[in-house]
Amino acid sequence: MEEIGNSLPMTQITIEIFEPHGTELRDLWELIYEQATPNFFLSWHWMSTWYNSLDDSPTVLLARQNHRPVGIAMLCQRQVKQFKAIKRQQLLLHKTGNELHDQAWIEYNDFLVIEEYANATRLAFVKYITTKMHWDEMIVGASEHKAFAPYLLNNLSRRDIWKSLSYRTDLAFIRDNHLEYINTLSKNTRYQIKRSLRIYEKCGGIELQFASTVEQAIQWFEDAGPLHIQRWYKTSVGSGYTNPQFVQFHKQLIKHSFDDGKIHLIKIIAGARVVGFLYNFVEPHEIKFYLAATNFNNGDKNLKPGLIAHYLAINHYLKAGYDVYDFMAGESQYKRSLSSSISQVSLSSFKRANIASQTETYLRKLKQFIFEPYKFINNIPELTLILTGGKESISGDRNYNEAIALKLNISQSGIKVLHSTHYQSPPAHCATATNVTFKSSSQSGSRIVTVTETEILELSEHTLAIEEVISHKGFNDLHHVIKEDGRYLVANTGLDSVCEYRPITDELSQKFITDDSGMSRLKPDVDYRKIACTKPHFTHPNYLFSLQDELWVTRCDLMDAVSLDSNKRIEIGGNLVHDGVVFKNNVYFTCVDGQIRVFDTHTLMLKHLVDLKDFVPNLNGWCRGILPIATNLAVVGISKYRQSKKRRFSKQHSHARLLLVDIFKRQVIWDIDTSQLGMDAIFGIHKSST
């Protein structure tokens, strides 16, 4: 018997089509919800409002474990045409496919399953849907990625129709650490909040008012309409208040949920002035913000009504004992400013892997190539950058045969190479097959400190002239170096460790090792420089950085970063992790597949996530180096696939690229082919002060 999920044999879970009568659907739904993880969108309050709004009855699937109900879901089906010719049967989870009807917009969409057997029940649902029901495409979302796992395990191909970030503020962390919420925000955000509060105080003070009756709540929801329309009507998002189905849905939802304490309608006032409205859903420990309507009709650009509304609401819920304030999906500056963590949510399409789905994927890519040309931003900032990397070897045992450092001036008028350095490691410092390339680097005074696989080098920041070369027989596959107090801290990747090297005594000691790795312990009688490769590595330490007065290192294969001075750990995830660069209150991590994951330096929680593949065309390479130059702007290095990686990851031709991207707007500001400059691998990226 196959064991899956929550240690429950899948054969014990049966799925059936359930035809409810009378109150059976409500009774079953509420019974299962009592044993599920709380989720307002899967509660009977939301689902009954949706169910009663349908013209046609959905298909209800019920999961049982030894006759015990353990899961339930509702599916709608429709026929659609794609590319004006291909007819497809579309199956949708808790959605109709009608844009106006679905504008009510369910989030955290999933099968409703009891927590005890959640994973096993999801898998049983998807297996039934894929083997017993006729459809060509299934639409699921908006959901977090954990909801998609059973579809992928059933060999369905996935395409994201829409995706965004869901922002949260961790109230429990603030409360448990005895912090003032405002002190967890950036300096600029604090300034804007305090300035707005001073202006509103002159109007007679600002306060939150909570609707006390269902009638008042519905009235406030209606009063919010004109403000919401004024703000959103002319945008690509639009306002749901212009859609009668949206308005009717939420009036019914408020009517059926308010008296059970599941909805908060909040009016924010400053004296006689209405600042705005908030419409929130209430769970036992969380608040889910659904809609805001704020008053910008004040003529004062210094006022931030939306920022103030959420700031006051968060403080209220913090004092009331809630653990999370969830802004939910939709990207906005105020959400980034006020939140402490994020997750990714998507509306996704799943199809069976066959010739028809492969043909459709090809047509979509062709359409994007023809009708959605790549555009650059014209107004670019001038930067002088220093890059460290290497040149690909065309033949021989080495992937890279020349270490290169470039100093570039990038401006509106073009790219100018100011200085360059080309370097070959001497035979005494390496094996015949050892790659020769500069790896990641750091700045120390007026010097750039970098590494080859077996050496530490110091370069002049001004001219890139080599000032010093250090080699030690304990060096193998070095990836990064930091110089402080006359010593060098190096990511000695070939030995799966971080080492401290003191040049005065020529002493090399390990600060951090991995006991599970056979190559992790330094043997004094071995010249590791003469060993071309020590793979496989257990952790593959990549990049060193300082955070909270502690030394940290990224570990590529474990997809995390750990402190060398305590037991702190950041679970980065996503893919193999390379660099970790601290900028202001954030740490910017790169994953080699093109993801940039931004974590808060205080809470160590994910704050922002962007995948370069979503907006950079033909991203075909290895993402390593990153240089944040503003909270939203980062220079990113994409190395050309070396020959061993081409066979594994791509058959397409690639070249190294240096990108300046806006990670909030998901825009490319410039894109430079560094292979044309002789650099095929980009590791270190620094902003030059000279």
Q: Radius of gyration in whole Å, from Cα?
A: 28 Å
What is the count of DSSP helices, taking H or I runs of 4+ residues?
Answer: 12
Low-pLDDT residue intervals, each spanning 5 or more residues: 1-5, 7-11, 369-377, 646-651
- What is the overall silhouette? globular
Question: Mind explaining what this structure looks like?
Answer:
With about 700 residues, the protein is an alpha+beta fold. The chain has three domains: about 5-155 and about 355-370, Aminopeptidase, CATH 3.40.630; about 165-345, 3-Layer(aba) Sandwich (Aminopeptidase); about 385-685, Neuraminidase, CATH 2.120.10.30. About 20% of the residues lie in helices and about 40% in strands. The protein is built from twelve helices and 39 strands. Strands 3, 4, 5, 6, 7, 8, 9, 10, 11, 12, 13, 14 and 15 form a 13-stranded mixed sheet that branches. Strands 18-17-16-39 form a four-stranded antiparallel sheet, with no helix packed on it. α2 (about 45-50) packs across α8, α6 crosses α9 and α7 (about 215-230) runs antiparallel to α8. The radius of gyration is 28 Å and the shape is globular. The protein starts with a strand and ends with a strand. Residues about 1-5, about 5-10, about 370-375 and about 645-650 have low confidence and may be disordered.
